[in-house]
Amino acid sequence: MKLPNQFIESIPFSSELKKKLLSGLEQKPAYSVRLNPFKPSRRFKDEDSVPWSKNGKYLTERPEFISDPLFHSGVYYSQEASSMFLGQILNSTDLSNKIVLDLCAAPGGKSTLINSFLPKDALLVANEVIKSRSWILKENMDKWGSSNVIVTNNDPSEFEHFLGFFDAVVVDAPCSGEGMFRKDKKAIEEWSVKNVDLCCTRQKRILSDIIPTIKDGGILIYSTCTFNDKENRENLKWIQDNYEVENLNFEYPVNEGIIELQEGDLKGFQFLPGVTKGEGFFISAMRLFGGREKIKIPKRIRKLRLEEWDGDSLVFLENDNKNYIINEMIHNFPEAFESVLKSIVWDLKPIKIGCQVGQSIKGKMKYSHELALSNELKKESFDFVEVSREEAILFLQKKELVGLPKITSWGLIMYENQPLGWVKRVGNRLNNYYPKEYRIRKEFS
């Protein structure tokens, strides 16, 4: 691996750690997945665990995820092991009845992780500014299957009306990507001192935009997948120079090569290839003071009327949520956060609201793919059929299935007891309702 000389010169660690890092960057990457606690499965049951993640598993090699139906059903997420350390922070934090924002959320690794730690009385807002990436984020949140989530597509500056709104904000900031050199050769080609400086400036702008949305005493978690001080320690110093913060203490496993860095009163945690089993990652957690108390929803938004669907949601889902009709689609969403929903519908661009149940057309339901993948779905309310791996792949390719047991109307295609999506009996034909934008295009021999 040919690394830029200026990058090597800028590595801010001791000569011993620098030597280990450079050696680690020449080694084979570590592959890992994180299991969905809401969709129990025996998949990867016997693989080695990631020490700092109760649901993380190391793999001996990278499988072809696209050919595994359980990947498409949301049983697990392919996530880099180091970034799973966020779970250690969340595990020590009371998230009951809290609103959490994952600001730079695509493709969804940290959002699905956050959602795994949220009790049902809490809410996640997962945001991505780049439109194409926001739809990837939505797809992954659909697979994860929780209804206490909203996905938005907004610039950080567009949260200006949400002062003191969030109990916790995670900023996994766009960075120079040094920590991904081992997995992404393009990141090496794009690296430059100028790009590091640009990233550092952008990170401060993002933090400036979003910190006012954190309530007084709320939590800010800042992370990057890079090594240099400009994007990591210097940003921690900048935060302390401009805001009133204190370090958030939490327990984490020792003797795993995690490097604890001190910057003023704040701690940062650095992961290095060759030292820890994972890619490059930096994270710091702090409590922020001097912000606004929890925002009171303005009257203009409180008066916004959301139409309710009066159908029997208990037929579909095992929860106490309310069903709202938004743009003709029925969304199952926690009633406790109705005022939050009104604010987001008013001021932001939501592309996912809770669990989309479907659409009522002339009194008949057309079910949504989100409903099929919901971890609260009442499977027994529907006809369902367990299929082989070969049949599951055909379904995921959006091909016609033949020879299946009789389905009277709508039916769920299941693989290893996990729903993959809907089919519907129309005459002698079984229509495949797997979303065409998600279909597997590759042909398998």
Written account of the structure:
With about 450 residues, the chain is of the alpha+beta class. It has 2 domains: about 280 residues, 3-Layer(aba) Sandwich (Rossmann fold), CATH 3.40.50; about 60 residues, Nuclear Transport Factor 2, Chain: A (Roll). About 25% of the residues lie in helices and about 25% in strands. Strands 4, 5, 6, 7, 8, 9, 10, 11, 12 and 16 form a 10-stranded mixed β-sheet that branches. Strands 13-14-15-17-18 form a 5-stranded antiparallel β-sheet. It has a 4-stranded mixed β-sheet with strand order 19-20-21-22. The longest helix has 18 residues. The chain is globular and about 70 Å long.
What structural keywords apply?
single chain; 445 residues; Rossmann fold; Nuclear Transport Factor 2, Chain: A; 2 domains; ten-stranded mixed beta sheet; 13 helices; 22 strands; 25% helix
Task: Describe the protein's topology.
Layout: H1 5-10, H2 15-24, E1 31-35, E2 56-59, H3 69-73, E3 76-77, H4 86-91, E4 99-102, H5 109-117, E5 123-127, H6 131-144, E6 149-152, E7 166-172, H7 185-190, H8 193-210, E8 214-224, H9 233-242, E9 244-247, E10 259-263, E11 266-271, E12 281-289, H10 299-302, E13 307-308, E14 322-326, E15 329-333, H11 338-347, E16 350-353, E17 355-361, E18 364-367, H12 369-373, E19 383-386, H13 389-396, E20 410-415, E21 418-426, E22 429-432
Parallel strand pairs: 4-5, 4-7, 5-6, 7-8, 19-20
Antiparallel strand pairs: 1-2, 1-3, 6-16, 8-12, 9-12, 10-11, 11-12, 13-14, 14-15, 15-17, 17-18, 20-21, 21-22
